[in-house]
Amino acid sequence: MNNPFKRMTKREWALWFVSIAIVVMSNIMAGRVDALTLTATCIGVTSLIFAAQGNVWAPILMTIFCIQYAIISYRFRYWGEMFTYLFMSLPMSVWSIVTWLKNARNSSDGTVEIRKITRKGAGVLVLCNVAVTIAFYILLKKLNTPNLIFSTISVVTSFFAASLTMLRSSYYALGYASNDIVLIILWILASIKDPGYIPVVVNFLIFFLNDMYGFICWKKRETAQC
User: According to the lineage, what is the superkingdom (predicted)?
Assistant: First the structure.
């Protein structure tokens, strides 16, 4: 369990500082600074930077983010987001900590070894996702969840993202990037009713950029690993 900040490149430091600065500014410009939203976003951004490194601190911080984001979603009655992050993403993040620790490629820097998903594994993943999505859709519909369709799509992308992270696939970042797009739409809809949620939209825009950076980094490491 090394200090992940010591391994950050100049590019990653710049990306981290710019991301945090934009997040803080968006909260200030919104006219009201929500401590929970701001803290959760800073932890989320930091987690994504560590994830790009393949460092086990990424799922550790993501576990904390899942709890915080579930609370934020509860405030707006986005039951889909709350249940998804609390009962699916959170357990999978904990599981990811275990799998990443067990499959560290280099004990000195804590970098996780990348795993390629087989066709059989991909098929099982899709079937599990279908089952989970149907179950969540029925639950969310009974709870009269706002923006049900987008909330259901968020379940799909969240499951793929969390599963691929746990399985150490380089495509985990594309899963999260897809989820970011859905969440941007969801929180834009929420912001129409309450402009105070505009910073959350900005937060997920920053997450999207960081996730794409993570995907590029993992594909480079995957090529070097082969």
Answer: Bacteria
